[in-house]
Amino acid sequence: MIKPKIFQVNGTEYTVRPAKVSDAPALAELRLQIDGETEHFDRVQGEGLIDEGEFKELILLDTSIPNHLFLVAEVEGNLVGFSRCEGSHLKRLKHQVEFGVGVIKEFWGLKIGQALLSQSILWAHHQGLVKMTLKVIETNKSAIYVYKKYEFEIEGILKKHKRLSDGHYYNTLIMSRFFS
């Protein structure tokens, strides 16, 4: 189990910890806000909403399955980011998880996404997982740089995978980190 960990960057202190059921209302608002602040995700703001009840179910599920992890980042009692690792129940796929992360724009540059990623990597290693995979749009150069720094490699490209507000199509990179 991941224990809460405190980080300090540029005078801001934040905690990365496992999500709790009581975080559900804040997570519903946080995800909606993040979706409206960037085009790096699959959704535009308001699409694919997850309400408070669904977040409660998700947190309960993630805390009961060994190859799932749901983390949040908190500044002064307010959630500012989250990440999830989701594994499969299928025997042939149990050795790997898919990672996703989001941080509100106001807190970009404080390495919150990196803290969520590093804690997830530690967890995956301790779980004995073999592979952690994520998807990132080709225009998100700063995220790609960070993922490479954490030993992720490009494993594949989904061509013309997303159409952004400029009307152009962009590729999505599939990146993976291998543990053994």
UniProtKB/TrEMBL annotation:
Disulfide bond listed as a keyword: no
Keywords: Acyltransferase, Transferase
Annotated N-acetyltransferase domain residues: 14-176
GO molecular function: acyltransferase activity
Keyword Acyltransferase included in the entry's annotation: yes
Pfam families: Acetyltransf_1
EC number(s) from the headed UniProt entry: 2.3.1.-
UniProt cross-references to PANTHER family, sorted A to Z: N-ACETYLTRANSFERASE
Protein name as annotated: GNAT family N-acetyltransferase
